[in-house]
Every structure is written in C-alpha cells, then in structure tokens.
Amino acid sequence: MKQFFKFFFASVLGVIVGSILLFFLLIAFLSFVFSSFSSEKSVTLKTPHVLEIKLNQPIKERSSKNPLSNFDWQTLKANTQPGLYEIINCINKAATDDNIKGIYLHSATVSAGLASIEEIRNALKRFRASGKFVFSYADYYDQGAYYLASVADSIFMNDQGAVDFRGFSIELTFLRGLFDKLDIDPQLIRHGKYKSAGESYTEYKMSPENRLQLETMVDAFWKHSVMEIAASRKLSPEAVQLAADSVVGMDPQKALASKLIDRLTYEDQVIAILQNQTGKKATEKPDLISLAKYQHVPKKDLKYQKDRIAFIFGTGAIASGDGDDESIGSDKIADAIRVARNDDKIKAIVFRVNSPGGSALASDVIWREIKLAKAEKPVVISMGDVAASGGYYISCAADSIFSDPNTITGSIGVIGLIFNIQNFLKNKLGVTTDSYKTGEFADLGLMTHPLSPAERNKIMSMIERIYDEFTRKVAEGRRLDQAFVDSIGQGRVWAGSDALGIGLIDRIGGFTDAIECAARMAEISEYKVVELPEQADPVKELLAGMTAEAKLSFSGFDKQERQLIQTVRKYFGQSGVQAILPFEYDLK
C-alpha cells in the first residue's frame, strides 16, 4: 500500500508540475506572439529615407488586431504585412513627407487580387507625380509583381532572373465526377443562365454561358493590363502583347531587349543607386524604412477635425450574425452603418465591399441600413477585388459606386443547392433512414431524400421571388429599368471596366477616390477618416483564432489544399437561399 501511495502522489505531483510548466510555456508563447504584433510607438524620421515596399505576404483589406491572423504555425513566425488600407495610406503619406525621397519596390511575387494590385499601382502613380522616384528590383517577377513594377521609373532584375509575363488563364475545378463515385446527387435550383455557382458540383466542365462570361471578363482584365503596361513602359500595346505571346521575359536578355525591364543587375548595385539618390556616400548604406514601420510615422500638420467620414470594411462571405475580420456578419455591419448614420460628426459614409456574396437574407439586412443611411448623408461604395451577387446587393442602394477596372462585380442572380446523400449513405456506408412527417413539405431541405417535383417548385418559387426583389432593388438604386437589369443580370459577372458602360457602377477608382468623392458630396474639405466596425479585442481574437487555422496548418496540407478545404466547408456550411459568386478564382 505504501508503494501505491508513493507512486500515486508522485504521479499527482508530476501532473501538477507539468501543468504549471505548460501554463508558463503558454504564457511565454502568448507573450512572444503579442510582442510580434504589438503596436509600435510613434516613429520619427529626421534624415532622408527610402520607403521599402515588400509585398511577399497575403494582402488583406486591413491589418488585423488578432495576433494569430497572420501567424505561420509551421514556421512559428509572425507575418507583419500591413493591409491594403494601410499600404495605400502609407504611400499617400510618403508623397508629401519631405523625409521620404523615393520608394524601393522589392517584391518578386504579390499575393493579392488584380483590383488590390491596381489600387497599389495607382497609389505609386500618384507618388511619382509628386516628383519622387520609384525603383523596382527582384530576382524574378511573377505577373502580379511585374504589373505593379511596370509603373516604376526603373525596373531592375537579377542577371539570371526572369519575368513571368505570358497572359492570364483561369481554371475551374469540377467535382461532379467525385460525387458520381460517392453516389451524391447535387440538386441545383437557380435563376439566371449565367449563375454558375453550383456548376462545379453538377457539371463536368463549364457551361457555354459560364465560358462566355469568363472569357469576356478575363479578356477585359488582360486588355486593361496590356494598355497600362504599354503606357507606363512607353511601348505599343502590340509590342506588349507580342512579348507575352513570345514569353520573352523568361530569357533575361530578351526581357531587356524587349524593354520589359531597364537593367540587369544585382541588388547591391541597386542599393548603390539608392545611395546616390539619397545623397549617401559610397561607404554608407541608404536609410530604408519598411511599410510596417512607416505606418507608425505620424502624418505632419495634423489638425483637429470635427468632421468625419466613416470608412466601413465589408470583407468576405455574407452571413447572418457578427462575422469576423474575414467575413461579413449582417448584425455587425448593419450596426456599424447605423452608428455612422446616427453620429452627427460623421458627414458621409464610404462602404468598402470586397465580397463574393452569400446569404440573400443577410444581404437584405445590410441593404436596408444602406438605404436608411443614404436618406441622411452621402453613402459611397468602394469595390475591392470582388463585389458580386450579395456583394452587389449590399452596394446598389448607395449614392455612388466606385470600382476598379479589375473588380469582379454583377452576378445578379440567386441559387439554391441541396445535396442528396441518400444513395451515398445506403450504398457506401450501409446506412438507411426512415421518417414520418405531418405535412408534404415538413422535411424540405433534408439531404436524405431527393427533391420531389413539388419541393423543387416550392424552392424555385422562393428563388424567383428573391431574384425579382433583387433586380427591383438594383433598378431602384441605379435608376434603371427592371427589365434592363434582368437582361444584364441572369447571374452574369462583369469586369469593373465593363460594368461602367452598363450602369452597374458610376466611376472607376479606388477607395482614396471614393473618400474624396464622399467629402465633396458632404461639402467638407477637412475631415478625419474613422474605421468601422471597431476590431475586436486582441485577447479575445487570440483565443478565438487558436482553432481551425492552426489545426489546418499543422495538418500537413499545403496552402492550396487548405484553401480547397475551407472552400468546401464554406459551401456545405451555407443555409437558406444564396446570392453568391459562381466560382472561386485565381488568375495566373
């Protein structure tokens, strides 16, 4: 018995000591994470600097206060990439900062959508217009990085590098063959011949309508890119197209001869050029300051501004509830709009929409708040990479809509998708179900039986009603005939440049343009921009964030596989009728 108690108490003591050690290790880990993301104190520049811009990490709409949102669980390193909002503001601030002599763009890849890259590129254009230089260097340029770099005064590349410039392609993945093998029947009900959301489950390849809309959209994106590169590089559009078709950028000498770049060199030689530009001696290094640090340099001549413009972020899929930094919760966004509407100091609202849509009901809740706000003060929409389907629904009631040429918008359509897994359960797992119902539609929506004609008609009737309401609200908000909205609707997606010609948007421009427009409409010249909704407490965000993303990161799946898993989770987790973009896209 003595031995028993000896080992028992030893075990208990071991558990207690181990728990204490784990507790202190957790505290140490959390301290490390918080220190990595902690807000820096105000930074003061007293000598000439060059703003160094590296965009080699995913660019979100705005920086998150969640210490784990950009934490790499595999490398245990913190990613400190500022959000698009902070990047643009830094570049705008640098243009009038006497201590910033130029920008050193240093990125081989840019992990962002085409519209986000366009916004940064336009900010660099404005910076150059101030009389300051922009130099770009990379060992290798992917297409996004090259498009961004093409606006620079000089493009430098490693002597053995390459420019991956060959045109855009888009590839969709279809899961119908997989569902056939699993005996799962995806039941799609939709309004809109172009509304291809769900086709990845029901088809083996693109429908003719989907292929047409995607070809038109991608061609518009490519044409815009070619024209912009040609203008910046002082080349003809035909020469730029030939360079892409011939893939000359893969040979550094041919890239130089075709004027895609200006000079083949090494980074130390570029640093020497920067030394000369900033008046440094040959033995001195140029003073570089990163975006992450420069955002803590206060803007000069700040005066107290009584008037305010609310800048409301709406990012991600739309659903009921609060959402988070990566999704649009109708409750939280509606509350943010309501706060801005009721605050007398806020003279105008800019709603930044970067969303593929989602719940039709949640979208309608947000639409209502936009309409109420518009009755009291100017409301301007700034569209990001995507503002489609439900993302367009929540935008259409505003006074004015700004879009990038490369924004994906429209997709005015509605779908319902119900998976019938009856045969999967029976044939693959040996599971059967039996049921009783008190009415014909009592079990409507269950995945354990196929839809009857009556059930399908019931869902179709609901979708038709929502589509009619959708097009009516677009017609009202955009001052268009509803029949015309139906003709350009039908679920079709449009490039922002094409959306302008058919009245879905008002102007081409980024969020800086949208803010300036809102100020003009409110008739104010000096104002402060306030960000809404307020971000959650970082401690709560930290505890909430140590779940799904960490598990996926440790799972052994690579980045592409994790994105696919999250996409499937998103679609299977939806409920109700959806107004959502018909595809996940990544232009290469």
- According to DSSP, the number of beta strands is 23
Biggest sheet, open or closed, and with what strands and sense?
Answer: 8 strands, mixed
Mind telling me the CATH superfamily name of the largest domain? 2-enoyl-CoA Hydratase, Chain A, domain 1
Tell me the β content: 15-25%
Structural class: alpha/beta
Low-confidence blocks of residues: 547-557
Q: What oligomeric state do these chains adopt?
A: single chain
DSSP summary: helix tally: 22
> How would you describe the shape?
globular
What is the CATH architecture assignment of the largest domain? Alpha-Beta Complex
Helical amount among residues, as a percent range?
40-55%
Q: Fill in the CATH topology of the largest domain.
A: 2-enoyl-CoA Hydratase, Chain A, domain 1
CATH class of the largest domain: Alpha Beta
Number of domains: 2
- Average predicted local confidence, pLDDT: 87
How far the N terminus sits from the C terminus, by CA atoms, comes to 71 Å
Could you explain how this protein is built, in words?
This protein has 588 residues and is of the alpha/beta class. 44% of the residues lie in helices and 19% in strands. The chain has 22 helices and 23 strands. Helix 3 (114-129) runs parallel beside helix 4, helix 12 (330-342) runs parallel beside helix 13 (360-374) and helix 16 (453-478) crosses helix 17.
Give a quick rundown of the structure.
With 588 residues, the protein is of the alpha/beta class. The protein contains 22 helices and 23 strands.
